[in-house]
Amino acid sequence: MRYFLIAGEKSGDQHAAGLMIRIREQDAQADFRFIGGDAMSEASGNEPLLHIDRLGFMGFTQLLGQAGRILKLFKVCHQGILEFKPDLIIPVDFGGFNLRLIRWAGIRGFRSVYYITPKIWAWMPSRGKKIARYCEKALCILPFEPDFLSRYGADSHYTGNPVVEYTEPVVKQDPGQVRKRLGLPQKEIIALLPGSRNQEIRMLLPIMAGVIPHFPAFQFVIAACDPFPDSYYQNLLPGMPATLVRGKTLELLRASRSALVTSGTATLEAALTGTPQVVCYRTSGISYLVARLLIRVKHISLVNLVLGRTCVDELIQGRLKVSTLQMSLERITAEGPRRQEILEGYREMKIRLTDRKSAEEAARIIVAAAIRT
User: Fold this and answer.
1) Who has greater pLDDT, 122 or 78?
2) Computed over its alpha carbons, how large is the radius of gyration of the chain?
3) Pick the CATH number of 165-353 from 3.40.50.970, 3.40.50.2000, 2.60.40.10, 3.10.50.40
4) Where along the chain do its domains lie?
5) Which of 4, 152, 247, 259 is most buried, taking the most CB atoms under 10 A from its CB?
6) Residue among 57, 60, 83 at smallest CA distance from 69
């Protein structure tokens, strides 16, 4: 069967790659075309029609400035779908783009199954109607999402969360041994995860790095990512002692005493590797004002959203300052009740997410749907 996948971010690329592997286990003749990154390329043996390194949008004002790229992405997708004639289109997260694409595809008779449905419960919930109308199945990775989507008539399923599966091997490793394998000194680590997109790294890393002088007993290690060279990071923290680690974010989290983490999938990764965290978020002033008008949830971190209460600190926009970061980081790094409260919350969150193998479950549903063509 022929499958066309669209993942627009690093986390989506990783999740989609795992899905491709599981699809091929159940459909040996699976043929893939996709928008994605290196992980999807490795999983499929093909190159993407457009690489996600050429994307990377963050915030409303940034999107306005990238209109040309977005239009190019639509053009590449439209042309690729019309030429490939997939049995199924599989949008992976990336809701701002993919929800428009499934409408275009549905009008032209193409079928879609959404994997990792966008966070419509956070803002513009009426988009659930679009998912219900243009997607045969909506496959969710947060346990509260199917009930929400079913209100709009979507055939939705909780497949488990893929982060649970791919963090399991790391969780079993000894932090000291992981630190040694990373080539880091045997000194306790505070990890900095400033994100994977240019805009968020530039906004967050200098503030995160501002706490470094206040924790002289620790080494600070940054989870760096491609395509940004070492010099890019070094220019954002002049004179600050910090080490870069690439492609080993889970291992870095496992080896760390605590972490400062950008809002997103990394908050789940920190929780599932047992690393107390402070969640950070900042965007442009205009983007933040628009978000405040649209967003309907109290929390931004996936940990707090799954638990339905505040477990980890969220420092957002004006509250994200070196002084507040330092205060929160001190409380979770030192042994004490706040640190234990977070670790207990992580255990509860893990139970709620369940041990289902998300990619395997999603692949089973997707292949069955494709065969019904």
Assistant:
1) 78
2) 20
3) 3.40.50.2000
4) 2-160+356-371, 165-353
5) 259
6) 57
